[in-house]
Specification:
The chain is α+β, with helices and mostly antiparallel strands. The chain has seven helices and eleven strands. It has two domains: 2-29 and 108-221, ATP-grasp fold, B domain (D-amino Acid Aminotransferase, Chain A, domain 1, 2-Layer Sandwich), CATH 3.30.470; 34-104, 2-Layer Sandwich (Dna Ligase, domain 1), CATH 3.30.1490. Helix 6 packs across helix 7 (177-193).
């Protein structure tokens, strides 16, 4: 994997959100449509490609907690708002690397988490659970040692206590569990094929019209 190799050669231990999602997309995992820009002059072109409403985030390999640092702007609806957001985000960023990720705003009421940890004894293990702000509070997750097959992935999905949110509830359509299972299988394969990947955190995976989309991601390298 070229992005991983480049990061390792540069002595880095993390990929940026944009790089992480590029790696995920190369494994067939659905990610947000997005553009990485470094100059305000490139905003118009990015907006034209993606369309409103937008989410804009500060993006650099060293940034892990964007919300706490005030590096996220949600529901950006015109170019004036986008230019103000770009100026504010870059002003709040440290260091020379000041890029902004311009994303399609994915709407959905259900948030999940998926990822990978590399256990010293068992090797790469795939993780799935309830996502968003509830990940650390409720700790509703399931694990499997990679590689995993379709049956393993579907079992993982049904093991979490909150699995009923994946059904048709309150007017929301049921989640495409096959698509969700394919994401977990792909994460396991990524961990098996790339020994330098120590950890993957995809949070949240938002369910939009029944389909899972990776909205934010972080990849840690050994």
């Amino acid at each position: 994997m070229n992005l991983i190799d480049q990061a390792l050669k540069a002595g880095r231990t993390t990929l940026s959100e944009y790089e992480s999602k590029q790696v995920l997309a190369s494994y067939g995992i659905p990610v947000t449509p997005e553009e990485l820009i470094r100059n305000p002059e490139d905003l118009s072109q990015a907006i034209h490609k993606i369309g409103y409403p937008l989410v804009m985030k500060g993006c650099a390999a060293k940034i892990a907690h964007k919300t706490e640092r005030g590096l996220i702007r949600m529901d950006v609806r015109n170019e004036d708002e986008a230019r103000i957001a770009f100026k504010e985000i870059t002003a709040a960023m440290d260091g020379a690397e000041k890029a902004v990720l311009v994303q399609q705003m994915i709407k959905g009421q259900r948030e999940l988490v998926a990822g990978l940890i590399r256990d010293p004894q068992f090797g790469p293990c795939v993780m799935f659970g309830l996502g968003g702000i509830f990940t650390e509070i409720l700790e509703d997750t399931s694990f499997r040692v990679a590689p995993i097959g379709k049956r393993d992935a579907l079992e993982m999905i049904l093991e979490i206590k909150a699995h009923k949110i994946l059904e048709a509830i309150r007017g929301m359509e049921p989640v495409d569990k096959d698509m969700l299972a394919d994401i977990l299988i792909a994460i396991g394969r990524l961990g098996i094929e790339n020994e330098a990947v120590k950890e993957i955190d995809i949070n949240p995976v938002i369910i939009s019209r029944g389909k899972p989309v990776a909205v934010d991601a972080l990849m840690v390298l050994a």
